[in-house]
Amino acid sequence: MDFRYLGNSGLKISEITYGNWLTHGSQVENDTATQCVRAALDAGISTFDTADAYANTAAETVLGEALKGERRESLEIFTKVYWPTGPKGKNDTGLSRKHVMESINGSLQRLQTDYVDLYQAHRYDTETPLEETMQAFADIVRQGKALYIGVSEWTADQIRAGVELSRELGFQLVSNQPQYSMLWRVIEGEVVPTSKELGVSQIVWSPIAQGVLTGKYKPGEQPPAGSRATDEKGGADMISRFMRDDVLTGVQLLQPVADELGLSMAQLAVAWVLQNENVASAIIGASRPEQVSENVKASGVTIPAELMAKVDDALGAVVERDPARTAENAPAQRPV
Fold this sequence. Notes:
Layout: E1 3-5, E2 12-14, E3 16-19, H1 30-42, E4 47-49, H2 58-67, E5 76-81, H3 97-111, E6 116-121, H4 130-142, E7 146-151, H5 156-169, E8 173-176, H6 191-198, E9 201-204, H7 235-239, H8 245-252, H9 255-261, H10 265-273, E10 279-284, H11 289-295, H12 305-315, H13 324-328
Parallel strand pairs: 3-4, 3-10, 4-5, 5-6, 6-7, 7-8, 8-9, 9-10
Antiparallel strand pairs: 1-2
Helix pairs in contact: 1-2, 1-11, 2-3, 3-4, 4-5, 5-6
């Protein structure tokens, strides 16, 4: 496992992060989830990402149990705040001072730790003054409940405003967590250049495009039984944007590139996002331990320029690059 610095900080994280969105506490049983975490640790992964909203707090509880007994100083534990949790009352959502301060306490209890290494704003809250949110984060850092602060799916302008306030308040905003893959490159035009300038890293989610980049979905064919495209708990909705024949046809053309590198299609997809120097880590999930063991083989891979070009040629016009999609995919008002 290779390690990278997170933003303009001294914190090193594993370039593969284990995440438990859509799995722990919902899609897989707790014992299987624990086996996946053990597989991640065995593979050298030290960085774990979750959120209070995943399975309405259950995912944090499962991760806390799975990591119990591990040397805390050897781990980097990340979580997030924003989406509705608990009974989803009027203040159980957003980035108000009240919700942020109460949420960090709940997360720490569920994760069975005194602090998280990174606390992230899961989305931008249009209904709370940014100054209020950033002051709450500053206080959490000073209380020792979080070491660093990050955001998720913020636009370039929002990241710039957040970094400016964090510097005024004396803490570090070091990361952004966006969707990024061969098929979804909307951060490349604005978010990445701004982040480079400001010393902010990307911790990217869905590098395999919810499984589409494994090549298991074939154009003109029904999705395999039990796959994410057939999951009615949310997986099918998330993957639907990629389930077009033109996208699936382009993905099939990536197999020769993977073969030339001696990688599986999934490993190629993870290795591809790690070629971006602004990416500190790629988040992988798993419903089986062997998926973890396979995907970590993307760590340390260098893809030559000519093969990167072949990826672009294969996917052509099906790649989404519009920077406006970041803002379009964020809530216009606080969810309830």
